Amino acid sequence: MKDDNLLLSMCLVFAPLSLMAIGGGSSILGQLQYSVVDSQQWLTNKAFMDMFAISRVAPGPGTLIVTLIGWHLAGWLGAVLSTIAIFAPSSLLVVAIAYVWHRHPDAAWQKALIYGLAPLAAGLVLSSVHALLQQARGGWIAWCVAILVAGAAQTVRLGPLALMGLGAILFCALLAVAG
């Protein structure tokens, strides 16, 4: 069995991130990367990016990257504890908020909460994108493709998989031309 301090440290890092994941797992990727690479030094940037890539192609929520990190650090017990740490706090918070939400329908604070959290979620997602693009090996090409795909997502009626495929093709084409 791995060091108990490591298991506790993983829970103490991942549980607060669970409560920050407003807008989904993408919103915490920047902080997650900082926590596991820079602060705790559990992973290298390359290992984090590899786990990020695996978590993107695997079915399920994007926060399953935490399960991969836990597994890498402490085996099956690390995978289970890190998964509980990333999902339990936010799940309990949602249950509590849903209970209060339905007891007070059409309250003014509900609209304030909805309109106030939307820009917060967008900002967290954008900061995560920035942090990931900083570590991507694609350099300026990755930035250009990301901006073009984001613009296309707002204007073209294509699904996310088609946009991802087109973005990959565009990235490879630009890399071939530049390289």
What does this structure look like?
It is found in: Cell membrane. Keywords: Cell membrane, Membrane, Transmembrane, Transmembrane helix. It is a multi-pass membrane protein. This is Chromate transporter. Pfam families: Chromate_transp. By secondary structure, this protein is mainly α. It has a domain of 104 residues. It has 7 helices and no strands. It starts with a helix and ends with a helix. The chain is flat.
Task: Supply the number of helical segments.
Answer: 7
Strand content: under 5%
Assign a percent range to the helix content: over 70%
How would you spell out the order of helices and strands?
HHHHHHH
Q: What oligomerization state is this entry in?
A: single chain
Sheet with the most strands, sense and barrel status: none
Shape: flat
Low-confidence segments = none
Compute the CA-based radius of gyration: 18 Å
**Structural class given helices, strands, pairing?**
mainly alpha
What value does the average pLDDT take? 90
What's the β-strand tally?
0
End-to-end gap = 47 Å
Organism: Aquamicrobium soli
Family: Belongs to the chromate ion transporter (CHR) (TC 2.A.51) family.
Transmembrane segments: 6-30, 51-73, 79-101, 113-133, 139-156, 161-178
Subcellular location: Cell membrane
